[in-house]
Amino acid sequence: MNWNHLRLLQGAGMWIGSHTLLHRYLPRMSDERLRAELGSPGSACSRS
Prior knowledge:
The chain has helices spanning 3-11, 31-38, 43-47. By secondary structure, the protein is an all-alpha fold. It has one domain (3-47).
């Protein structure tokens, strides 16, 4: 999937947003672990 695919999905009404890596319970995480879990916005898309 690339940015153009994401734009098409968004245009069709899909919501595109950040996602966690391992689906952990975020309120119990340290700030450092939260930053690692959430990563930078769009980082997975940027690598593909």
